[in-house]
Write a structure and sequence with these properties.
Blueprint: E1 69-71, E2 74-76, H1 78-89, H2 98-124, H3 131-146, H4 152-159, H5 164-184, H6 193-205, E3 210-220, H7 226-241, H8 246-253, E4 264-269, H9 275-282, E5 289-295, E6 298-309, E7 319-327, H10 335-351, H11 358-365, E8 368-376, H12 385-389, E9 400-402, E10 406-416, H13 426-452, E11 455-457
Antiparallel strand pairs: 1-2, 1-11, 3-4, 3-6, 5-6, 7-8, 7-10, 9-10
InterPro entries: OMP_Chaperone_SurA (IPR050280), PPIase_dom_sf (IPR046357), PPIase_PpiC (IPR000297), Trigger_fact/SurA_dom_sf (IPR027304)
Organism: Erythrobacter sanguineus
Signal peptide: 1-36
Length: 458
C-alpha cells in the first residue's frame, strides 16, 4: 500500500546462521632453554585457564564439512537437513546462498540434534508421541493454511524442496518436548498466592504506564562460544531486516520455550525484562526490530508487536464506523491523466462537509463509497492505524493507493472506544510466573540432555 504522504515502513525476514568453533591440531615443542611462560590460572571468568593470546594450528573451515550426525544411534542425513532448510528459506523473499547458506545448515543441524534428543528422551520416559497425534496436528496446520483443500499442503511442501515427513518430524519434536515438560518440569514449579498478589498490587500501582507485546529470538551463549554466537545473531538480524516471517524463524531457531508460539512473550512491562531488553524496548515503535542484545546467558533479538498502557484500554480494540471513498482508472490511462484525476479527487475530498455529505457528493463526482460501521482498528493495515486513530469525526486520511488499485481515502464517521482493561485474573498472573520458571528449567533440562548424549559427526 502506498500512501500519498510520508510514512515509515518496516519489514522483516528471517534466517539464522551459526558458525561452528574451530578445532586445534598439533603442538609445538618449546626448547628447554626458552624463558618460562606465564601460565593462565583458572578463574570464575576463565574456568579453563585459557591464555590471552593463543595460536591456532591448522586451517579452520568447519562449515565445509558434511553436515550430518548420529545422535545416540539415530542418523540425521543430509536430506533431513536439506528439507528442513527448505522450510526456512521458503519464507524468505530473497535467496540465501553461499556462506550464508552454509551457516544456516549448521544451525539447522543443531536444531535437528536437539529435536532428536527430545524425541528420544520422551520415548525413554514412555511418553512417545503417536503417529495419530502427529497426523492430527499436521492436518490442522494444513486446514489453517489451505482451507478446504488441506491436501495441497503435501504438494506445497514438495514444491519448495521439503516434504510432509520433515514437517511431521518437527511436530513430533515439539509434542515430545511438551510431554517431557508436563511430566518432569511443570509439576515441580510452584507459585505462591503471596507472589501472585504482589504482582497484582504492582500492576495496580503502575496503572497507565506502558507495557509491550514482544517477540524474541533467544540464542544462548557461554564465555567460550560468545564470539561465534554474537556473529550468528548479527547475521540473523541482517536477514530479518530484509523482510520475512519473524514467527517462522523464532519457531525454528529460538532456544526459549516461547519458540513454539513464534517467540511471542505476550504483554510485559519493562520491569519484567532484563535491563538491556527493557532499555531497547522503551525506544522501539510497533513493527521495529532491535538486536542482537546481550543479556545474562546469551543474546536476544526483539520485535515489538504492539504497545499499550497497563490496565488501560487498548486503542487497537476500538470499533470504527468508516466510509471509504475511491476512484478507479481505465486500463489505458496515462500517468499525466491519472495525476490530474488524483488532484481533482483531492480537491473534492477537501470539499466534503462530513459523513452525511459523502454519498450524494460522491455520486456527482463519480466516486464509489463503501461503508462499514463495525471495523476494529486492529484489522486495519499497520500504516493506516496511526492515521485513523488521530482523526476526528468527519476527517479523512491522506489519499492512498495507485493506478492499478485505484486511489481512495477513509473518512471517520464514528468510534466506540473500548472500556479500560481490568487487572489480569489471579489465574492469569500465576500462569505467567509459572511459564517463566518452566522456561528456565527447560533450558537447563535440554542442556543436560546434550551433555549426556553420544553424538558422532560425519
Amino acid at each position: 500500500m502506498k500512501l500519498f504522504s510520508k510514512t515509515t515502513k518496516f519489514g522483516m525476514r528471517g534466517g539464522v546462521m551459526l558458525t561452528a568453533l574451530a578445532g586445534l591440531a598439533g603442538l609445538a615443542l618449546v626448547p628447554a632453554a626458552a624463558p618460562a611462560q606465564t601460565i593462565a590460572v583458572p578463574t570464575a571468568d576463565n574456568p579453563f585457564g585459557l591464555p590471552a593470546d593463543i595460536t591456532i594450528f591448522g586451517k579452520a573451515d568447519p562449515d565445509r564439512r558434511t553436515a550430518t550426525a548420529v545422535v545416540n544411534g539415530y542418523v540425521i542425513t543430509g536430506t533431513d537437513i536439506d528439507q528442513r532448510v527448505a522450510l526456512v528459506t521458503s519464507a524468505s523473499e530473497a535467496p540465501i546462498e553461499g556462506e550464508e547458506l552454509l551457516r544456516l545448515r549448521v544451525q539447522v543441524l543443531r536444531n535437528l540434534i536437539d529435536e532428536t534428543l527430545k524425541v528420544q528422551a520422551a520415548e525413554a520416559a514412555e511418553l512417545k508421541v503417536s503417529a495419530a497425534e502427529v497426523e492430527q496436528t499436521y492436518q490442522q496446520l494444513a486446514a489453517q493454511n489451505f482451507g478446504t483443500n488441506p491436501e495441497k499442503m503435501d504438494e506445497y511442501l514438495l514444491s519448495i524442496g521439503s516434504s510432509p515427513s520433515a514437517l511431521k518430524r518437527q511436530i513430533e519434536g515439539e509434542a515430545a518436548w511438551e510431554n517431557l515438560l508436563r511430566r518432569n518440569i511443570m509439576p515441580f514449579v510452584n507459585v505462591s498466592a503471596e507472589e501472585v498478589n504482589d504482582v497484582l498490587a504492582r500492576l495496580e500501582a503502575s496503572r497507565g504506564t506502558d507495557e509491550y507485546r514482544l517477540g524474541e529470538i533467544y540464542l544462548s551463549a557461554t564465555t567460550e562460544n560468545r564470539a561465534a554466537v554474537l556473529s550468528n545473531a548479527q547475521a540473523i538480524m541482517q536477514q530479518l531486516q530484509q523482510g520475512g516471517s519473524f514467527v517462522a524463524y523464532a519457531r525454528q531457531f529460538s532456544e526459549a520455550t516461547t519458540a513454539v508460539v513464534g517467540g511471542d512473550l505476550g504483554w510485559v512491562r519493562l520491569g519484567q525484562l532484563p535491563p538491556p531488553l527493557a532499555t531497547a524496548a522503551r525506544q522501539m515503535q510497533a513493527g521495529q526490530l532491535q538486536g542482537p542484545i546481550e543479556i545474562p546467558g546469551g543474546f536476544s533479538i526483539l520485535y515489538l508487536i504492539n504497545k499499550r498502557q497497563v490496565l488501560m484500554a487498548d486503542p487497537s480494540d476500538a470499533i470504527l464506523s468508516l466510509k471509504q471513498i475511491s476512484i478507479a482508472f481505465p486500463p489505458d490511462v496515462t500517468e499525466a491523466q491519472a495525476e490530474i484525476k488524483v488532484n481533482e479527487f483531492g480537491t473534492f475530498v477537501e470539499s466534503l462537509r462530513g459523513c452525511g455529505d459523502v454519498d450524494g457528493a460522491a455520486a456527482q463526482f463519480g466516486a464509489q463509497v463503501i461503508s462499514n460501521d463495525q471495523l476494529k482498528v486492529a484489522s486495519l493495515p499497520e500504516q493506516l492505524r496511526p492515521l485513523i486513530m488521530n482523526l476526528q469525526i468527519g476527517q479523512t486520511t491522506p489519499l492512498f493507493g495507485g493506478i492499478e488499485d485505484g486511489v481512495r481515502v477513509l473518512m471517520l464517521c464514528g468510534r466506540d472506544d473500548p472500556e479500560d482493561a481490568g487487572a489480569p485474573t489471579f489465574a492469569a498472573v500465576m500462569d505467567q510466573i509459572e511459564q517463566e520458571r518452566i522456561n528456565k528449567r527447560a533450558q537447563r533440562y535440554l542442556r543436560d540432555l546434550r551433555n549426556d548424549a553420544y553424538i558422532e559427526y560425519n
